[in-house]
Amino acid sequence: MSIARSFSIREELSTVIPDLNLIDEQCVDGIDTFWVPRTRLLLVAEALRFSLKKPFSFLYDLTAIDETRRESGAKQVMQDFTLVYLLRSYDRNKDVRLKVALAEQDKKAPSVCKVWPNANWYEREVWDLFGIEFQGHPCLRRIMMPTSWQGHPLCKEHPARATEMGKYSLPDDIRDFEQEALRFDPKAWGLEPTGRDEEFMWLNLGPNHPSVHGVFRIMLQLEGEQIVQAIPDIGYHHRGAEKMAERQSWHSYIPYTDRIDYLGGVMNNLPYLMAVEKLAGIEVPERARVIRVMMCEIFRILSHLLFYGTFAQDIGALSPIFYMFVDREKLFTIVEAITGARMHPSWFRIGGVSSDLPRGWDRLILDWLDEMPKRLHDYDKMVMDNALVKQRTVGIGRYDTATAIEWGVTGPGLRATGFDWDLRKQRPYSGYENFDFDVPVAENGDSYDRCKVRVEEIRQSMRIIRQCVDNMPSGPYKAEHSLTTPPVKDRTMQDIDTLIPHFLGVSWGPVIPPGEAMAEVEATKGSNAYYLISDGSTNSYRTHIRTPSFPHLQMIPVMARGQMISDLIATLGSIDFVMADVDR
Amino acid sequence: MWDMELLLKITLLVSTLLPTAALLVWLERRLLGFWQERCGPNRVGPFGILQSLADLIKILFKHDWIPPFADKPLFVLAPLIGALAVMMSFVVVPLSPGWMISDSHIGLLFFLAMTSLAVYGVLLAGWSSNNKYALLGGMRAAAQTICYEVFMGVSLLGVVILAGSFRLSDIVQAQQGLWFVIPQFVGFVIFIIAGIAESHRLPFDLPEAETELTGGFHTEYSGIKFALFFLGEYLGIMLISMMATTLFLGGWLGPWLPPLVWFLLKTLLLICFFILLRASLPRPRYDQLLAFGWKWLLPLALVNLLVTAAIKLTGGT
């Protein structure tokens, strides 16, 4: 199927670029993958973006792979580093993956910022973590690591553990140096000074500020209270989650995923596990899939309720957040009853879920579902219908669909512009095609609409959960597959052929067959994807996490221009980001 | 030479005002808790009533810190001005016929003058902190006060016309037949709105707006100096409630109960109303607040004044 399709893209491209020399690669996830020579990259990118009839207008993801320790893979083109571009065309509902091979001595590539504006931060990240230089990039500076960092952490030669790096100490002079390095210098950000010094003021909003929801810094050039320009600075919450994945077994990395979007709970497990299951070829049983959908939707509600409350709080309404915390508390009690944990259950497993549903689970959920609509109705009256809330948010932080796609906005932020695209509908996963629900859409793409879409999504998630309760299939909650971890234990003590894989899978962890796969879910904040590369070992060779919040923050300068500080706060509140999700 | 009775009254007033303000903090937190489906402070003493005392002890023992980049004399002076100006205003409040420290014939003007002075505390704090957030907070405070000061004065003139005096006890006596809240309802609403703006409380807490300016004018303040701002804010709510009671709700007037009890009851009700407002409303934007003030409230207050004066002149009431 994928081969027939890839032919058509290739043909379409060759009408634009006649002497195109693309090399195919077959990936487990079925996405058309082409190796492009570095010299032709810009040409191909422009053709895909501008020349095709249904263009690939959305740069979904951009990352790199250090191939120097790789043992299996597409040998004929692979060099020391690979750049990976994932492009999406909404018109075709189709993705294309471009790969560019780079040599160690010559880690350079042309920048595609002019083709897709949101490539800016992605290229900075690749430069920061891999040391690959992008020629023509407007401001290639570190984004995750401190500017004073030595080396590029995602290279294989870079140590992964603190114990490999010698004792850490922070004498006064180094502390002062590091603090000085944090001082904002407009020139270092490639900004030309505009206006006279006394006409404006630079305000450092963050990294610690009540409304940036974590550690996030925005430098604001102010004229009075009006924002001339805003420069977001991230990386204060970077934990190296992708590097950690290379040291963890496939199984023991699951808890780390919970903490990427720390409000998404088990929703984070799902794309990771779906990618692993694609690599391993595991078919997840029906009951496990429905349980997964149910838990994901519960966490969507949990996340949206927190968004709702903090959004109201950011514009000065004190009370809603407390009501929503009460709802969350009740829901967390249910989550706890089912999974044993509250915010970060890490409850999904390779091939299914950790345990079966406890007795009486359905009663708990139905009770909650019954009492919730009335409370949601009250919140609507309190927040959404409030004239002051409307005054603060309608028309604030507005963007249209084209701008949203250009900057890589996904999820509710995209649907608020009137663009009806929900992954659960367009590319159903984990059995979403069996559920009856609507995709809420708004028209204006302003802060108010972004909130409105999310509020409606809470109702739709409740619909899905009710369907899960009503139609929960019976059967196993884990796949009968040798790579299911931990494996089904029924026959373990009966025959040696089951005992050995069980023993290995639990002690070393499963060995996932070589290959690469990406899996994507419609997460709480937008599109969340895991791109995994297995080299046929007990841990991942490269794990890349595409998070929705990262491009959303990149768009802040576009939204903030000309706003008042208070508008920016309302806009930030409406984006619904989590810094752990941005910085990983 | 010294009027011993007056001195005694002043001492009594000051020594009840401060604990009452502390109690008010507790009351607000309990009420907010009640309205927000949570408990609020309920551990220290019965019903948590000693919570403010515990907070006070903690705040007194904190390091008395002045940032090295601040303008020291002003930085220290600012909270004092804020708290003192509010406390001075209580001098003219007639709690009951027998309880007036100063029954001045310009009592109302004195109150207006003192509330205008109080903003200097905020302004100077914002300026002397030498912090950008504090500066923005100070700027907002200045703009907001100028705007709301004007029509607060204008909204009260209706009352003055009806009572024919600036003396607060005269104003209360003039309400024997009918509380001024009825003929002067517009003035009452405007005064309440201006009063919230004057005491910088949600929804008009723009000078501090913690989600926007991290703390606004008091960003750099801690310890006892911060406590003074806090004290000033709560005394401010009490003052505005007491003044609204005096000017519009008939002050101490009321049947059966002693006058003082009536006065305190009405005041408490208004205070609870202020707290409820804080619990329920979001904050407008700075320019929206100013536009609302200049474009709606000021003309409305002027019309109210004109109509009242016209009725009075034609011999209506």
SSE topology sketch:
The complex is a heterodimer of chains A (584) and B (317).
Chain A: H1 2-16, E1 23-25, E2 32-35, H2 41-51, E3 58-66, E4 81-89, E5 94-102, E6 108-110, H3 119-130, E7 133-135, H4 172-181, E8 201-205, E9 217-223, E10 226-233, H5 241-245, H6 254-258, H7 269-280, H8 286-314, H9 320-339, E11 348-349, E12 352-353, H10 361-384, H11 387-393, H12 401-406, H13 412-415, H14 423-426, H15 447-470, H16 496-507, E13 515-522, E14 527-534, E15 540-546, H17 549-554, H18 556-560, H19 565-575, H20 579-583
Parallel strand pairs in A: 2-5, 6-7
Antiparallel strand pairs in A: 1-2, 3-4, 4-5, 8-9, 9-10, 11-12, 13-14, 14-15
Helix pairs in contact in A: 8-9, 8-15, 8-19, 9-10, 10-15, 15-19
Chain B: H1 4-35, H2 51-60, H3 72-89, H4 107-128, H5 132-163, H6 168-173, H7 185-198, H8 210-213, H9 223-248, H10 259-280, H11 286-313
Helix pairs in contact in B: 1-9, 1-10, 3-4, 3-9, 4-5, 5-7, 5-11, 7-9, 9-10
Structure description:
Chain B: Keywords: Cell membrane, Membrane, NAD, Quinone, Translocase, Transmembrane, Transmembrane helix, Ubiquinone. Chain B: Its EC number is 7.1.1.-. Chain B: This is NADH-quinone oxidoreductase subunit H. The complex is a heterodimer of chains A (584) and B (317). Chain A contains 20 helices and 15 strands. Chain A is an alpha+beta fold and 584 residues long. Chain A folds into two domains: 2-135, Beta Polymerase, domain 2; 241-549, Cytochrome-c3 Hydrogenase, chain B. Mean pLDDT of chain A is 87; it is low at 1-6. The two termini of chain A are 35 Å apart. Chain A has a five-stranded mixed beta sheet. In chain A, strands 8-9-10 form a three-stranded antiparallel beta sheet. Chain A has a three-stranded antiparallel beta sheet with strand order 13-14-15. Chain B has eleven helices and no strands. Chain B is mainly α and 317 residues long. In chain B, helix 1 (4-35) packs parallel to helix 10 (259-280), helix 3 (72-89) packs parallel to helix 9 and helix 7 packs antiparallel against helix 9. The chains are: A alpha+beta (584), B mainly alpha (317). The A-B interface holds A 201, 203-204, 209-211, 225, 312-319, 322-323, 326, 382, 386, 388-389, 391-392, 564-567, 569 and B 32, 35-38, 132-133, 136, 139, 202-203, 205, 209-214, 278-288.
